[in-house]
Amino acid sequence: MLTLIKDTLTSQVVTLWRVFSHLWVKADTVEYPDEMPYMFPRWRGRIILSRDPDGEERCVACNLCAVACPVDCIALQKTEDEEGRWYPEFFRINFSRCIMCGFCEEACPTNAIQLTPDFEMAEYERQDMVWEKEDLLIDGTGKYHDYNFYRVAGKKIGGKDKGEARNEAVPVNVRSLLP
Amino acid sequence: MTFEVGSGLSISVILATVIVVAAMLIWVERRLLSFWQERLGPNRVGPFGLLQVVADMIKIFTKEDWVPPFVDKFSFVLAPAIIMTVILLSFSVIPFAPGVGVVDSNIGVLFVLAMASLGAYSVMLAGLSSDNKYALLGSLRAAAQMISYEVFMGISILGVVALSGTFNLREIVLAQEENGWYIIPQFIGFVIFLIAGVAESHRLPFDIPEAEQEICAGYHTEYSGMKFGMFFVGEYLGLVLISSLITVLFFGGWLGPSFLPGIFWFALKSFVFIAFFILLRAAIPRPRYDQLMTYGWLFLLPVSLLNLLITGVIILSSS
Asked: Could you tell me the pTM of the whole model?
């Protein structure tokens, strides 16, 4: 019985006091609509399509994001312009399905698709959760400022031949290697 | 109509106050709990969230009052009414301040204990009539818990009764005016009454009859709408009742420095105990059911009997 009393005093009463002393600890709560919480730059929120430093669309419609997407919320169609650049004819993200996992961003070879620290995407109409390319495209470069896929890639497009990209050698003429 | 013990005005004011206070406790509890958990709690409806109670009431009154087809309809409807009624009846013997009260009963203490025993019927009927295994388990637990803890509750008050020589709660307060608060001579009795009170109103940590994690909501699993609301408010009424009983029996009721009226001191002391009960909920985990029973019968019962014995010896030797 004495041990029970001792346990009560050392355990229960101490517990009560510790919990009570939280009364003068400031609450962790951020009262969200009144004050915005600090959003970390790499927060995985609303998805955008960025442009390269020249102001062209970065997306080359390779479909890797759509393949990587675990919930299949990305739909797009490839098309080509007269210079031979690939770009999406349409690019559609269904945000009512999207789980903000960021796999599309990891899969993207051209840094086109990026996740941003914006989470205020509630809509009254379910159809409004489907965003088209015009809604997704932004005018900036997003998180990667200097990257331009066509300047580093070996693909030939109008105005840039093979071998003219940055850090790239002129293609070897394989026939000239013949003995 | 005058404001004296037993007048119609007095009765209606006390009834209204008690019910409003019990309803406000919904907000008080959520707010205090959240402070102890470093949150803010409900603070959006009205100033400091005070109107949260109104919102809750509107919600609970407009909910569908569903009686499942498989229940025993009569006792199902009766059960929530019983708990409200018996606890409100218990308030009739509480002396709130000089001249404020419903009855000055000579059997005040016994009346409160009797009403607490009747309260056990409420949970038993609710569990039995619900025809639901969780409800039945809950009511089994509630019945055993309430019946056994009533024993220690009664015995722990007997020390106070022996010291003051009366069952009348008002005279117990007046006796404390002469002899000092009974918390000092009856400290053990106070602790036992406090623990038994928690078990009696099945508040956390002794909320085993309605332990959500084990048996859904226990005896009120099948209840919804205002019937559930009555159990809910009944629990808070029980909390207020136990707090005011502790105030009356051990902390001198309305007694206090005379620069404030007695009712203020009564309210202040009661609120301290209400807050303490909420702190218990925030801090102490729920014991197992057999631990609860063992603790009661093998620890609280001998201690309370010993307390009564020693009190009797002291009274006899000093007279």
From this structure: 0.79
